[in-house]
Amino acid sequence: MAILSVASVVSAESKSFVHPGILHTHADLERMRQQVATGAQPYLDGFKILQKHSQSSSRYKVLGGFEETGRKPSVRSSEHESDANAAYQNAMMWAITGDQAHADKAIEILNAWSSTLKVISGRDKILCAGISGVKFAAAAEILRYTESGWATDDIVRMESMLRNIYDPVLKDMADFANGNWSLAALQTVMAIAVFTDDRVMFDHAVEWFYHGKDNARLTHYVINPEGQCQESGRDQQHTMLGLGYLAVVAEIGWNQGLDLYSAENNRILAGFEYTAAYNLGHDVPFQETTDTTGKYHHTAIASEGRGRFDRRPIFEMVYNHYKFRKGLDCPYTEAVVKKIRPEGPGFKGDHIGFGTILFAREGTD
To answer: What are phi and psi of 120, to 5 degrees?
Structure first.
């Protein structure tokens, strides 16, 4: 697949979307199937982590849907998060194993929410929609394009839910918050755009990545070429949270023929290397900084959460892009991958997770 640089973005506007093409293409799905079928490592161990997770079970008990979900105050937010995780994980189990029971479970979850949800509410509604919405969209994309048996009317209803309930919450991102908020929004807007074939929505998200006014803009989150991040002075768990979402944005772009990964001289890689190095115990440079909101001023890098990789399984996707797709050295990111492999689930499903089976490719692209 030809990948367009930032200079070629305009020429990509007339191209049709690749399907499936949110987090995984047909080639990716075939790669995973072959890795598991042949028992290749470390992929098989990564698959076993996914397979054993309770939200990957075809016997998972669906908790929704409901007319309302929200955060602060919480309104069925745990049910929303759990079902989104289970929909995506069952969709991936279906794609990898071909077991129809997993497809049926994912479809059941998506239909339960798309037939009932009317509003996403609360002070943290952007996080509510942004964290789980990308998983609903990614699950729907896989089911739609893998002969899962999902009915056309149900697919149309899913499109409507994502477009009319999720996107209005997310489309203006979050210019009042730390960058992980807006990046949660940005990843889901991009995912919805692909699933609904909405070029205007997709281009809006890409433009925001390059030129947005808030902390989701690439150069506003990874603020300098050394890789310091907007939240590096806050704590390490939120820094990795935002970086993980930034990587998802780049991966969706890559699957649609845009090389967001290479923007600003591989700025995403710089952010990962800087953060990995610090969390592995190395010293890194730090410049005093104030974010775009003017509210978050940091004078030193934060030690809170340092070295806690267990809740942020975000490294396989980026490692495999830069190391194997592009042939670039990423020693600190590589060290983290080898330290925590195989990747498991993210804390409360904040991230896609399970990167060793879902994204590790060892140079097959």
So the answer is: -115, 125
Which of 149, 75, 138 minimizes the C-alpha distance to 108? 149
Q: DSSP letters of 135-197? A: HHHHHHHHHHTTT----HHHHHHHHHHIIIIIHHHHTT--TTS-HHHHHHHHHHHHHHHHHTT
Q: Give the C-alpha separation, 323 to 321, whole Å.
A: 6
Looking at the domain assignment, is residue 99 inside a domain? Answer: yes
Give domain status of residue 1, yes or no.
Answer: no
Confidence of residue 363 (pLDDT cuts 50, 70, 90): low
Name residues whose C-beta falls within 8 Å of residue 321's C-beta, 6 or more positions apart in sequence. Answer: 250, 251, 254, 261
CB-based contact 319:337 (threshold 8 Å): yes
CATH number, position 89? 1.50.10.100
From CA 105, how far away is CA 55, in angstroms rounded? 10
Residue type (1 letter), 19? H
Is 86 contained in some domain?
yes
pLDDT digits (tens, 9 = 90+) for 237-254: 999 999 999 999 999 999
Domain tally, the chain: 1
Interval 81-95 mean pLDDT: 98
